[in-house]
């Protein structure tokens, strides 16, 4: 083990909800849920005040994107269906997601961190790993300086865990939320990590947790007490050895500071299952919009795609995908729609559609000489 590594995991506190509270400060201290993009935005009243939607009024299949800590205290968490959440917190404020704002704040907080500690692994819109090993500053004042930079750039708080590796840092950043700083060494694993639920280890999902529970393993400490040979026997060589090491806080993974994207995709789950005949206009609009968003993603990354694919999930939850590899790469929204339409022709559309997705893969830099796009008549499948 490299005892000289110092890795931080920074996690923004209730990020989407916190961004919304920047826009609507009058909602601070109240249970607020973000989700259901079709929900009407707050409506301005005659007296200048805003009328907000309530969770009890929601009807549909949307899920919670995030919630404030006040809403979480009522049992309402991200990933939960909005209809189920309404039973627990009917008076909670419901806001539609605003991903343009979230991406803006994400760029701001990452730039702020980079001004203090530039070696960063981007893990998503609201979290990053930071390698602090080369910075000659004690961990506590350094963490405070990073948090202050984030606050100054965004007005938002974050929580930071600083440990010898990524696995422990990810766990540590969650221990003192919100607005927390947790600094741990390997010597702290028995007292701070072993009492936690095994699910707190990033990588142990519901199925693995259920298998561990059947072995009598509920906590990280109980997992650490299981012989490596037994874990290998039950989970296989790779997973079994990883579980044994993870329970002891062992993780030598480096930070990945640059990534080559393999694909970009966009998808939409509909509020109700759509019929290809009766809801043709809505499906067509959604299909065109997804293609446009994939084209925007490609443009931002400066890439073109050789493969276009689609994904359909039907009302019975069966899922079908189709891909088309092209002779020449493309990035234009209309050309993406045409290629995706060719994929669509290869799927029997006899059932109502629950989810629609569009994917671009085989990504590469654009050719030096742009390839002319042959525009054909639009397919009218929907």
From TrEMBL:
Monomer. This is DNA polymerase IV. The active site is at residue 127. Its EC number is 2.7.7.7. InterPro entries: DNA/RNA_pol_sf (IPR043502), DNA_pol_Y-fam_lit_finger_sf (IPR036775), DNA_pol_Y-fam_little_finger (IPR017961), DNA_polymerase-Y (IPR050116), DNApol_IV (IPR022880), IMS_HHH_1 (IPR053848), Rev_trsase/Diguanyl_cyclase (IPR043128), UmuC (IPR001126). Transmembrane segments: none annotated. It is an enzyme of class 2 (transferase). The record marks 16 as: Substrate discrimination. GO terms for cellular component: cytosol. It comes from Azonexus fungiphilus. Mg(2+) binds at residues 11, 126. GO terms for biological process: DNA repair; DNA-templated DNA replication; error-prone translesion synthesis; SOS response. One of its GO terms (molecular function) is damaged DNA binding.
């Amino acid at each position: 083990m490299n005892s000289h590594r110092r890795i931080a995991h920074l996690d923004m506190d209730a990020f989407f909800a916190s961004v919304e509270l920047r826009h609507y400060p009058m909602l601070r201290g109240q249970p607020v849920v973000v989700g259901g993009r079709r929900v009407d935005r707050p409506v301005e009243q005659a007296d200048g005040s805003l009328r907000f939607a309530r969770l009890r009024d929601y009807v549909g299949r949307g899920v919670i994107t995030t919630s404030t800590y006040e809403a979480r205290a009522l049992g309402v968490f991200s990933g939960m269906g909005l209809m189920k959440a309404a039973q627990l917190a009917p008076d909670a404020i419901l806001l539609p997601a605003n991903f343009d704002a979230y991406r803006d704040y994400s760029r701001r907080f990452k730039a702020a961190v980079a001004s203090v500690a530039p070696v960063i692994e981007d893990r998503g819109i609201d979290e990053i790993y930071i390698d602090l090993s080369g910075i000659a500053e004690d961990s506590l004042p350094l963490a405070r300086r990073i948090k202050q930079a984030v606050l100054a750039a965004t007005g938002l708080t974050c929580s930071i865990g600083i440990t010898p590796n990524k696995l422990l840092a990810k766990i540590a950043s969650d221990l003192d939320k919100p607005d927390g700083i947790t600094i741990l060494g390997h010597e702290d694993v028995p007292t701070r990590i072993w009492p936690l639920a095994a699910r707190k280890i990033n990588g142990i999902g519901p199925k693995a947790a259920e298998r561990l529970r059947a072995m009598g393993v509920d906590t990280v400490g109980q997992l650490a007490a299981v012989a490596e040979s037994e874990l290998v026997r039950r989970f296989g060589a790779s997973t079994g050895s990883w579980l044994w090491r993870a329970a002891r806080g062992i993780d030598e993974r480096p930070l990945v500071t640059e990534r080559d994207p393999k694909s970009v995709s966009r998808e939409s789950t509909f509020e109700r299952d759509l019929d290809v005949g009766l809801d043709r206009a809505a499906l067509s609009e959604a299909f065109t919009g997804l293609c446009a968003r994939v084209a925007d993603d490609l443009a931002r990354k400066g890439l073109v795609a050789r493969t276009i694919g689609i994904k359909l999930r039907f009302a019975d939850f069966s899922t079908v995908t189709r891909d088309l590899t092209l002779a020449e790469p493309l990035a234009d929204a209309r050309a993406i729609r045409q290629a995706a339409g060719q994929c669509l022709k290869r799927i029997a559309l006899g059932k109502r559609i629950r989810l629609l997705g569009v994917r671009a893969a085989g990504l590469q830099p654009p050719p030096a000489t742009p390839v002319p796009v042959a525009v054909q008549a639009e397919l009218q499948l929907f």
